[in-house]
């Protein structure tokens, strides 16, 4: 009989061989794009690994502009964007691209002031700050909205995204709707020529800049403000109500959406007294005709799981899940993907 030490070594080698075979059998699905939904997508990818251990997701949180570019170039299996792709960009695609909405979230006005006071802003004030016209924290337009709050005679350091970003798309879509001057001078896009301010890469970068810069004010997705323990403002909506960004007020905005067949829609400045005005959906971008049948089949299985089970995880990470009737429509669209 072989010595115990030899048998143990053999067993260890067999186990290692088995583990490496499993690792090599794992299929890698590559995606890139939006930072806005990165916290929920990370959670989904981790959870889905338990559902189907044969699949692993490699997602690069590089901003929606990068996600759109990479899916057009077919260097990833799916893209992710918080702004729907334009007709012009869709026309560049080598095949039909589908927009698969996943969750909705809020862009919040986050800031860095001594004592972290609770603040309120209206549309004119936000536009004025980002146009570079309101320069100080004690400007009458801000103090009038915040009676009783002691605001310093301090420069406002505007922080915006430096990369192509769906969070920026939502932000500039809102500003274009509420400010004719913004619409004509700057417009709506994932990347714009900013009239003022400093840039940060990703929601992570903007949150970091705000946290380390006294007097800073910028926009980030809600979960980044919550995770970084930053204060964020109530914003006056289209119905004239000051609304706190949260799951309920994003859901209220989402409920007003008139969602077309191609799922490209906007929910900024939504009507209704409970709707938070600066929020939007986020999409996965997937080719209707999959190039790789095996990978395509796995991607479709994940997408179905995300709509049925992943949505249930949205609230814990401060995202609004899709309404049930929209979930049903999205599932039908996923079934149209050709493998």
Written overview of the protein:
The structure is a single chain. The protein is built from 13 helices and twelve strands. It is elongated, with a radius of gyration of 23 Å. Strands 1, 2, 3, 4, 6, 7, 8, 11 and 12 form a nine-stranded mixed β-sheet that branches. Strands 5-9-10 form a three-stranded mixed β-sheet. About 6% of the residues have low confidence. With 339 residues, it is an alpha/beta fold.
Task: Briefly summarize what is shown.
By secondary structure, the protein is of the alpha/beta class.
Q: What proportion of the residues is helical, as a percent range?
A: 40-55%
Counting copies of identical and different chains, the oligomeric state is single chain
Question: How many angstroms separate the termini?
Answer: 54 Å
Report the structural category: alpha/beta
Q: What is the CATH C level class of the largest domain, in words?
A: Alpha Beta
| CATH structural fold name of the largest domain | D-Maltodextrin-Binding Protein, domain 2
Strand content: 15-25%
Question: Which secondary structure elements does this structure contain, and how are they paired or packed?
Answer:
Blueprint (H helix, E strand, L loop, with lengths): L3 H22 L1 E7 L4 H14 L3 E7 L2 H9 L5 E4 L5 H6 L4 E15 L8 E2 L1 H8 L9 H6 L11 E5 L4 H13 L1 H6 L12 E3 L1 H11 L3 E6 H6 L6 E3 L5 E2 L3 H9 L23 E9 L5 H16 L11 E2 L2 H12 L4
Parallel strand pairs: 1-2, 1-3, 5-9, 6-7, 6-8
Antiparallel strand pairs: 3-11, 4-8, 4-11, 4-12, 9-10
